[in-house]
Amino acid sequence: MKQTFYDIFSELNKIPRPSHHESRVAQWLCDFAQKHGLKYRRDDENCVVIEKPASPGCEDAEPVVILNHMDMVCVARDGYERNGRKFDPLNDEIIPYIDVDENGTRWMKAEGTSLGADNGFGLSMALAILADDTLVHPALEVLTTTNEEDGMSGAEALSLDFIKGRKIINLDSEAYDEITVGAAGAFLQVAHWTPRHDDVPQGYAYRRIVMDGGLGGHSGVDINKGRCNCNREMAVFLDEELADGIMAGQVAVCAFNGGTANASIPSCADVVVALHPDVADSMAQIVAARNEDLRARYAATDAGINMRIEDAAPCDKCIDKATVMNLLGCIPELPCGVIEMRDDMPGTVMTSNNIGVVRTLDDEITVSCHTRSFSNDDMHEFAEAIEETCLGHLASDVEQLMDTGSWMENPDSPLLQLTCDTFKDVLGFEPKKVAMHFVLEAAYYVEKYPGVEMASMGPLIIEPHSTSERINLDTADNIWRVTVELLKRLATK
Predict the structure, then answer these.
(1) Contact predicate 460/175, CB 8 Å
(2) Can you tell me the distance from the alpha carbon of 408 to that of 42, in angstroms, rounded to the nearest whole number?
(3) What gap in Å lies between CA 133 and CA 139, rounded to an integer?
(4) Whole-angstrom distance, CA of residue 375 vs CA of residue 364
(5) Rounded distance, CA 241 to CA 161, Å?
(6) What DSSP assignment string belongs to 130-166?
(7) Maximum C-alpha span of the chain
(8) CB 40 within 8 A of CB 127
(9) Apex CA 85: angle with CA 79 and CA 86, to 5°?
(10) What is the dihedral of CA 247, 251, 255, 257, to 10 degrees?
(11) Which pLDDT belongs to residue 220?
């Protein structure tokens, strides 16, 4: 029985595949190729390309690359458990389900986690094409990269001979009625602090200050929606309300953790503090007052945001005052959210920054910043300013993890025009050509493979990189139809 892309997506979601942990899904792709008698190659970064010969009679057509990435941003709802234990993104599968809204529209969602439709649905379509011998197509190279969501190290490391095709269909877009013809560049860096640790005085009360319930979302396409960045809001709260107590020794900070992925707007953050008896009772009132302020400010854009205080287990040590005050001085100074909008594209963000993840480990504290821009000069300027801010607050090191340029497709590209014509003939409308404030791997391919043309499309995916992620299944069916017809036209024109 023929495998549909729905069947394949169901199989794919049984394999944990967060960024940096793709070896199992890479092996699954190789096994898929072997099962269907297809040649494949796998490089040291676990990127996989699977080759399928052209349909009979189409051997003279130019080969086509179908591009996707195998990793996903895996986030779970705060407190979400599976079988009585906390969800583990490295070992637990994604459980999708279908929900039909009041208009009869079918949506696929996931139980308690992000869905992985970005980019699992596009990958599943590409594999379904490989598995279907009734389709007409040129020679195909289905290229699936690693770590697209958190550094693009897979695309960056591709060898110059890894693919032969120069026409690329990228199925990693999220707006059904649009073809992406441009994408922002991205710069990802992580600042490190090396703290000392002090003993907590006897008799102090331990509390956990929690901020959660935010919508979070994609730090590119959702960055202009006014949502709460819980890492920044928590740092501002500590700096404004607790700094005097920290300096006076009445408040000790034991841990600060927030966010789950560098490319997601952090929807939660929590801080463990030890409080002198003189301030322990009043802390609940301080947190309650800040919660009212927080909910009022985000009522229109992030109504679920909530802040509370609860008891916490005792800690062996606390972070030294100097490190805490440097951290609280630094984070509020970092640019957060939209920095500049594009003048030539109303409603499109030019430059932004996301304070994605704050982590307290045994021997270090880390803060990540994910800067995006259509201007490579602006992106590097802000990245340098962020590094200077962190070092100015005595970060021990600022580590660069990604630096990928922006991309704009040639508007006269024959592949682009053929894709638009196919949309119009199959679906009855011509898609808009847009530049998006997310990051695609396109810049690497333009640099590595001269003469590349790329058309980027996909089904409607709402709230990627969040626990609200969902995909409109009707649009997925239609993108499948467009892709199949486009391949046929590329094989026979």
Answers:
(1) yes
(2) 29
(3) 12
(4) 33
(5) 57
(6) HH-TTS--S-EEEEEES-TTTT-HHHHH--TTS----
(7) 84
(8) no
(9) 40
(10) -90
(11) 93
How far lies 259's CA from each of 268, 363, 390, 420, 461, in Å? 6, 19, 19, 39, 22
Query: Which of these, 386, 392, 238, lies nearest to 321 by C-alpha position?
Result: 238
Helices (H) and strands (E) in the chain, counts: 12, 26
Q: What percent of the chain stands above pLDDT 70? A: 100
What predicted TM-score, i.e. pTM, was given to this entire model? Answer: 0.81
Distances (CA, A) of 266 to 28, 106, 217, 262: 31, 28, 8, 9
pLDDT tens per residue across span 254-273: 999 999 999 999 999 999 99
Q: Is-contact 99 115, C-beta < 8 A?
A: no
Q: Which amino acid is at 475?
A: T
176 Rama sector, left if φ>0, alpha if ψ -120 to 50, beta otherwise? alpha
Averaged pLDDT for residues 35-43: 98
Q: Where are the alpha helices (DSSP H) in 238-347?
A: 243-247, 277-297, 321-330
In this structure, the chain runs to a length of: 493
List the structure tokens of 225. Answer: 């929606």
**Structural contact between residues 486 and 125, judged by C-beta atoms closer than 8 angstroms:** no
Q: What is the pLDDT of residues 361-405, one digit of tens each?
A: 989 999 999 999 999 999 999 999 999 999 999 999 999 999 999
Contact 298, 208 (CB under 8 A): no
- For the record, the structure tokens of 56 come out as 């009979």
Cα distance between residue 123 and residue 68, in whole Å: 6
